[in-house]
Amino acid sequence: MPSVKDILIEMKDMSELMVDLAYSAVLFNNKAAADEVITLENRLNSMNYEIKKQSLVAARSLEDAEKLTTLLEIAEAAESMGNAAKDLADLTLKGFEPHPVFKMVMEESEKNIVRFKVYENSVLVNNSLGELLLLNRTGMRIISIRRGDSWIYGPDKNTVILAGDVLIAKGSETGTEIIEKLADGEINLEDLGNIEEFIDDD
Amino acid sequence: MPSVKDILIEMKDMSELMVDLAYSAVLFNNKAAADEVITLENRLNSMNYEIKKQSLVAARSLEDAEKLTTLLEIAEAAESMGNAAKDLADLTLKGFEPHPVFKMVMEESEKNIVRFKVYENSVLVNNSLGELLLLNRTGMRIISIRRGDSWIYGPDKNTVILAGDVLIAKGSETGTEIIEKLADGEINLEDLGNIEEFIDDD
After folding, report:
1. Contacts of A154 (CB under 8 A, 6+ apart)
2. Smallest CA–CA distance from A62 into chain B, residue
3. How far out from the chain centre does Cα B107 lie?
4. For position B201, what pLDDT does the model report?
5. Per-residue pLDDT tens for A28-46?
6. By the 8 A CB rule, do A165 and A195 touch?
7. Are residues A165 and A145 in contact, defined by beta-carbon separation less than 8 angstroms?
């Protein structure tokens, strides 16, 4: 059984990711992002339930109860954020009528979010993010990794990419094409030599 | 009068920032972050009101109305996220009783958010983020800049830092100390020579 601490960290990370994905879903009419939001929302609900259950069992005194209340309020806030994100995702999945302003927002924004799978023959496989330096090389930041049913939020330089991982990355449209080709195994890191250098402070 | 497009982009950016700041406020008991959330929440409310007003004026046909509804739903979702963030900030400002688990979350998280002012004699002044390469040099990412009453969300390599700017940065505790000293004018970029190199794919 995961600890309250682990649940809380995951609820926080999950709700932040959902907010990001949901805006991307609705503004870029990105159904893949919307699907992820729905999956995450279901999980967030179960986690909120779990944290409530564990808190009620843990409370032994009024002082305990006071501390646990804060914890429950954070879980509630995470769920509220998740719900708002779900509303946006639902809009996308229902096939809404996009307002012309979205196209303008999209053109101005350099921060699309993409989701793609890493194939076995990809150069990314079995390398850490620290070794790959994808941000410098492609201008794309890996914000999360879905591995089977589990998630890695905010992966760091030591996180190793495995075949079958689903990466969620944020960045420009040019970067999207490059990183998807790397994940497909279509191109290697050496092929990036002629691509203009990206600045990391984006 | 700002356009609906500009309001929408700002509401999106603002609600994302509020979510980040609010979690930081409650988990790190960071009152400065909580104060920013409250300020942003007031602004978010006025923007939602503005977008509703402009939409009602703009609707000329049922088709118009359908497209405008989506826009209003996005604004509503942004406000819901903002409200959830405000609930967390309120908790911090009321002086809540922190659950011991927060300390554990804090110790595990490498992603505190800090807010600090840039002083006139700082090396950061009148330099662009692209020139400063703060992420590489300090491990801190500048996520937003408050300049007087206006905000720059997701500044890019061309964004120039001015004296008096309030920077919101995300990163490790070590990085926090370094970047605050740079902003105070206590140290220069050359003083960073002996600091271990940071990997940008954090």
Report:
1. A13, A143, A144, B111
2. B97
3. 22
4. 40
5. 888 888 999 999 999 999 9
6. no
7. yes
What is the C-alpha separation between B192 and B146, in angstroms, rounded?
Answer: 26
User: A41 — contact with chain B (CB < 8 Å)?
Assistant: no
Q: A67: which chain B residues are within 8 Å (Cβ-Cβ)? A: 97-100
Specify which residues A171 forms β-bridges with: A112
Measured CA to CA, the distance from residue A43 to residue A36 in angstroms comes to 11
Distance CA B169, CA B166 (A): 10
The CA distance from A93 to A191, in Å, is: 37
Q: What CA–CA distance (Å, rounded) separates A26 from A3? A: 34
Q: How far apart are CA B140 and CA A201, in angstroms?
A: 10
Within the 105-134 window of chain A, which residues sit less than 8 Å (CB to CB) from chain B? 105, 108-111, 129-130, 132-134
> b or e along A2-28 (b: 16 or more beta carbons within 10 Å of the residue's beta carbon)?
eebbebbbbbbbbbbbbbbbbbbbbbb
- CB-CB: which of A8, A91, A142 is closest to B73? A91
- In order of their start, the domains of chain A are 4-100 (1.20.58.220), 110-194 (3.30.70.1450)
Taking only the tens place, the pLDDT of each residue in A109-166 is 666 788 889 999 999 999 999 899 888 888 888 989 999 888 888 788 899 999 999 9
CA distance B40 to chain A (A): 16
Rounded Cα distance between A118 and B129, Å, is: 32
Which of A46, A18, A52 minimizes the C-alpha distance to A33? A18
From first to last of its 202 residues, chain B has per-residue pLDDT tens of 677 888 888 888 899 889 988 988 888 888 888 998 999 999 999 999 999 888 888 888 888 888 888 888 889 999 999 999 999 999 889 887 777 777 777 666 666 788 889 999 999 999 999 899 888 888 888 989 999 888 888 788 899 999 999 999 988 777 888 999 999 999 888 887 645 444 444 4
Instruction: Show the DSSP H helices in chain A as ranges.
Output: 4-27, 31-58, 62-93, 100-108, 129-132, 134-138, 173-184
Q: What is the 3-state secondary structure (H, E, C) of B9-56?
A: HHHHHHHHHHHHHHHHHHHCCCHHHHHHHHHHHHHHHHHHHHHHHHHH
- The Cα B21–Cα B153 span in angstroms is 13
How far from chain centre, in Å, is Cα B103?
23
